[in-house]
Amino acid sequence: MVFKIVVVLVLFVIIASLFSALYFLAKDKDGGERTVKALTLRIGLSITLFILLLLGYYFGLIGGPGPR
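and the corresponding structure tokens:
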């Protein structure tokens, strides 16, 4: 159960980072340094979440396809 909560929290942080990048893109007229940082954070979190899901499946924390 804790694993699922962590996954949902990371998804919310990814979405928040995406919207902050959108805000910085609209607000900053000169350089887009904050936009790039927000998008870099989102990519890093997405890769981390993917690896976390793979490890969760490998160690049995999340289920597979179920009985056949």
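(Above: one complete record from the training split.) The chain has a mean pLDDT of 89.
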